[in-house]
Design a protein that fits this description.
By secondary structure, the protein is mainly alpha-helical. It has seven helices and no strands. About 15% of the residues are buried.
Length: about 130
């Protein structure tokens, strides 16, 4: 069962269900419920218990603390950011022996440097 089904059918409409036994579902439920202005107050009250009680008990705590709603509120799903990879930067990272973090830290400076004379750097690095 998806976390959205848990929210819609069990937490809001109060139908009977089996409680999830995994911690990740409760964490994801908290994240989704905290995006809504109606439910953030209730989630804030039970959040300190997330890692102190078993996942089934935490789900029931959420179940009893949220009021009954006829409809599930709209939850905007967060889209994953797509990182555009540059062959030139990847080659430079390989030549310099940098990690991804070092490349990320120096990317702004490298973009300025490479954009001034991109053809030279492509020829120099063999891209």
């Amino acid at each position: 069962m998806s976390p959205y089904d848990y929210i819609k059918y069990h937490l809001f409409q109060k139908t009977k269900c089996e409680a999830p036994t995994e911690d990740w579902i409760n964490i994801y439920l908290n994240k989704c419920l905290s995006l809504n202005q109606q439910t953030i107050r209730y989630v804030k009250e039970v959040l300190p218990f997330l890692f102190w009680i078993r996942p089934e008990h935490y789900f029931y705590l959420l179940y009893f603390s949220l009021p009954y709603y006829d409809k599930q509120p709209f939850f905007a799903r967060v889209a994953k950011e797509e990182i555009k990879e540059s062959k030139l930067l990847n080659k430079l990272q390989y030549v310099m022996g940098w990690s991804n973090r070092e490349l990320r830290n120096n990317k702004q400076l490298l973009d300025k440097l490479i954009l001034t004379n991109k053809e030279y750097w492509e020829k120099e690095l063999g891209v």
